[in-house]
């Protein structure tokens, strides 16, 4: 008994089972050392600062100007990143090797680079706009000239020059060309006029219809597709355009057509009817285009060169600015002391980290040449400490599964310790097939073996989620192979892996054991389900019975583990009330009913009895004193059932009444002076957990405590039934997975293989492969994962887990490198 007690105490005090012990500390930092001290603490990443200015807005804090400067530099860096990305260049993934520069110097350099880029972008945009206009003008001259050849004798040169329309006031180059080659003359209002231009192909039909209606049919519209695509300035993309010429008569028609051109985004350009002048203008436009193209290429080369230089340092600058902003955000959480010469900060840190924090603060004092050292001392705190579990890349995913339900209360038993095994095992019970398990194992091994390469890449949502849970998938695959060997299923096909079957044909002349029945003739199959059950008439009843009983056994064991952890919690926090009036009645109630059912299942398996367990459990409540008859599994079963039933009935009021009344009695005694608490000393032992982690008593409300205890008791009693039934999902999903796999194998693969045709066999194999991959390996995996998650969150963790804590979030630079803006 003494050894057992020591073992239980050792298990209850396991360090990895509970969060790290935390302590509340205060820092008094001289002003000249603040920036360097906070930076060193950020490198260490083991101190969570408390905001001492939470009553102030961000604009009322001390270092708001520095935060604004860092925000402005971050904006410029995002601008540079966007420009590098648009130019199709790759920013260096490794920070530049140049020494660190001061923040002021970096700010000046970023401002210079931004002005230079904005100027280059502005010039490039203007030149590009002029180039596009000249390109469009060239296309209009080439296409519209052909429409005007047949009408060259109908329209005089003077009227033509007078009626040409300009849609853009800023079109300086083209206007100068026309002034040199054409002089406006008197117009004949009664003569035929025309407008030429270019428009997007997608708008041509609507444009033509609108022109027809506006002029009441008094116009002639001619069009031709442009030989090359043109950059649209509004859409900023290359589009297909159409050159058009509209012939009309009258000043009013011209005004309407011009308004319609503006509304549809059509660009109008002047085209002379004289072929000689057309050729002359076309030559000048082509010459100007060549000059602009050379200018644009030179500007683009210069801009890319500047962007390459920026991209080489971009990551280093970004990390530097993020660190500076994080430092000033943290400094804004600190307060000045009365003398305004020191900053005072408070926060939480793990007890094991105190030497490291003190060393970092000492280095900050030395490096900043401060004459006054930084004061670091432990304080008491009213609020509960944060929860901090040290995890690695293997245990982190399991801890995230638990934290998704709720962060553990400070020093509460951590379910993730057991979830590492129980979660993949319960998944495998539902997914058991060693063929499918091997497929999952291959995928998990790919993610695990290439984790360094994949971890440095930006993955898609689905692949990133799978990569984060790669070790969960690995264990799920291994347990699936194990359970698949027990079920003896390889893509639903049984194999004689561990020897010959224990069954043979009932008749020595039979050749088809699937229809004639089986008879046992030797020792049981050494491991797992005998392959001869597959396809026999008794297969479904046998497997149903096996998996249903197995689900109840696993469920009762899992729930008992949860109740046992509630004992370790109560023992750790020194709550004898929870042990006597919560743990003891709960363990008695659950095992008096469902623990007894699990015992009957094991006895029935061992003895081969044909007792009806449904009948036994039902009449245990309806007629506990009646004779069991053929349903009796062992001697003394009836008195044992009566005893267990009485214990279960007694356990309910045992859970409900004593605890609230005892708490009320203790509360009244405390205020009547009959019991005294130990007075705390002024000095604190820095190596032990401070009183900040102790429970603080609030005002006692008996009715609230009683109602809470009543709800908890009713929830446990009803939950014992519903939770046990909930574990039957292990049986249901295992059966569904097995039957689906059998259907795909027999009705798809074997059916196709029955035809002596290669094409049909190939199609059957492809359908079978896709069904296995997308239904059994993806949908069924997700389904079993979610059901295993529910069993842990609801049926298991509600026995002991409060999950009302909050995470330890230290100030750390480690996450800034991969953090998105």
Automatic annotation (TrEMBL):
Transmembrane region(s): 425-449, 470-487, 550-570, 582-603, 640-657, 758-779
Location(s), subcellular: Membrane
Superkingdom of origin: Eukaryota
Pfam family for this entry, one: V_ATPase_I
Membrane disposition: Multi-pass membrane protein
GO BP terms: vacuolar acidification
Example GO molecular function: proton-transporting ATPase activity, rotational mechanism
GO cellular component: vacuolar proton-transporting V-type ATPase, V0 domain
Alphabetic keyword roster: Hydrogen ion transport, Ion transport, Membrane, Transmembrane, Transmembrane helix, Transport
Function text: Essential component of the vacuolar proton pump (V-ATPase), a multimeric enzyme that catalyzes the translocation of protons across the membranes. Required for assembly and activity of the V-ATPase.
Similarity comment: family membership: Belongs to the V-ATPase 116 kDa subunit family.
Full protein name: V-type proton ATPase subunit a
Natural source organism: Coptis chinensis
Organismal lineage: Eukaryota, Viridiplantae, Streptophyta, Embryophyta, Tracheophyta
């Amino acid at each position: 008994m003494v050894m057992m007690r020591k073992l239980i105490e050792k298990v209850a005090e396991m360090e990895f089972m509970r969060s790290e012990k935390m302590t509340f500390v205060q820092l008094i930092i001289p002003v000249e050392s603040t920036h360097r001290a906070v930076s060193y603490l950020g490198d260490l990443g083991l101190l969570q600062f408390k905001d001492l200015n939470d009553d102030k807005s961000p604009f009322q804090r001390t270092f708001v100007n520095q935060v604004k400067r860092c925000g402005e530099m971050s904006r410029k860096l995002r601008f540079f990143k966007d420009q590098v990305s648009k130019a199709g260049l790759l920013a260096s993934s490794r920070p530049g090797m140049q020494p660190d520069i001061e923040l002021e110097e970096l700010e000046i350099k970023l401002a210079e680079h931004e002005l230079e880029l904005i100027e280059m972008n502005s010039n490039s945009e203007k030149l590009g706009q002029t180039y596009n206009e000249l390109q469009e003008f060239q296309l209009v001259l080439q296409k519209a000239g052909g429409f005007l050849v047949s009408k060259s004798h109908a329209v005089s040169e003077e009227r033509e020059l007078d009626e040409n329309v300009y849609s853009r006031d800023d079109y300086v180059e083209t206007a100068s060309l026309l002034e040199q080659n054409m002089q406006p003359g008197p117009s004949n209002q009664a003569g035929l006029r025309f407008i030429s231009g270019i428009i997007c192909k997608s708008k041509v039909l609507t444009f033509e219809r609108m022109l027809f209606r506006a002029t009441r049919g008094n116009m002639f519209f001619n069009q031709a597709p442009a030989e090359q695509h043109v950059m649209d300035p509004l859409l900023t993309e290359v589009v297909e355009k159409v050159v058009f010429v509209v012939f009309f008569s009258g000043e009013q028609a011209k005004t309407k057509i011009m308004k319609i051109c503006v509304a549809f985004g059509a660009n109008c350009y002047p085209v002379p009817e004289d072929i000689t002048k057309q050729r002359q203008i076309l030559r000048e436009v082509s010459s100007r285009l060549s000059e602009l193209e050379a200018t644009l290429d030179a500007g683009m080369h210069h801009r890319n060169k500047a962007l390459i230089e920026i991209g080489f340092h971009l990551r280093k600058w970004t990390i530097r600015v993020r660190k500076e902003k994080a430092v000033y955000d943290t400094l804004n959480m600190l307060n000045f002391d009365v003398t305004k010469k020191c900053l005072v900060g408070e926060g939480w840190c793990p007890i094991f980290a105190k030497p490291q924090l003190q060393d970092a603060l000492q280095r900050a004092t030395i490096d900043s040449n401060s004459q006054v050292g930084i004061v670091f001392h432990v304080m008491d705190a009213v609020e509960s400490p944060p929860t901090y579990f040290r995890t690695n890349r293997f245990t982190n995913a399991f801890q995230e599964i638990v934290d998704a339900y709720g962060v553990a209360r400070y020093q509460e038993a951590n379910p993730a310790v057991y979830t590492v095994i129980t979660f993949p095992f319960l998944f495998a019970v539902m997914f058991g097939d060693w063929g499918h398990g091997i497929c999952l194992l291959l995928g998990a091994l790919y993610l695990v073996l290439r984790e360094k390469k994949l971890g440095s890449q930006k993955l898609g949502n689905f692949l990133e989620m799978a990569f984060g849970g790669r070790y969960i998938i690995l264990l799920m695959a291994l347990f699936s192979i194990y359970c698949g060997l027990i079920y003896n299923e390889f893509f639903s096909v049984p194999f004689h892996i561990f020897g010959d079957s224990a069954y043979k044909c009932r008749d020595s002349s039979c050749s088809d054991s699937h229809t004639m029945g089986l008879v046992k003739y030797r020792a049981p199959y050494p491991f797992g389900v005998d392959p001869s059950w597959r396809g026999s008439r008794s297969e479904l009843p046998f497997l149903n019975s096996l998996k249903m009983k197995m689900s109840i056994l696993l469920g009762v064991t899992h729930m008992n583990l949860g109740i046992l952890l509630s004992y370790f919690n109560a023992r750790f926090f020194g709550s004898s009330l929870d042990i006597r009036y919560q743990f003891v009645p709960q363990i008695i109630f659950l095992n008096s009913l469902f623990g007894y059912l699990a015992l009957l299942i094991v006895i029935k398996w061992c003895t081969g009895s044909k007792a009806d367990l449904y009948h036994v459990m039902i009449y245990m409540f309806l007629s506990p004193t009646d004779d069991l008859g053929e349903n009796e599994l062992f001697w003394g079963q009836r008195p044992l059932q009566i005893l267990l039933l009485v214990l279960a009935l007694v356990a309910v009021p045992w859970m409900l009444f004593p605890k609230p009344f005892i708490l009320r009695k203790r509360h009244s005694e405390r205020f009547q002076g009959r019991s005294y608490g130990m007075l705390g000393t002024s000095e604190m032992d820095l190596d032990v957990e401070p009183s900040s982690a102790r429970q603080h008593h609030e005002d006692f409300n008996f009715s609230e405590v009683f109602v809470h205890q009543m709800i908890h008791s009713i929830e446990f009693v009803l939950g014992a039934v519903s939770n046990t039934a909930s574990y039957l999902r292990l049986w249901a999903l295992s059966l569904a997975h097995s039957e689906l796999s059998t259907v795909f194998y027999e009705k798809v693969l074997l059916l196709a293989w029955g035809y002596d045709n290669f094409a049909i066999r190939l199609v059957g194999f492809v359908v079978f492969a896709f069904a296995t991959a997308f239904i059994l390996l993806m949908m069924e995996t997700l389904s079993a994962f979610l059901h295993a998650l529910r069993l842990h969150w609801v049926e298991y963790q509600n026995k002991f887990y409060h999950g009302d804590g909050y995470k330890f979030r230290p100030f750390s630079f480690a996450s800034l490198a991969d953090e998105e803006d």
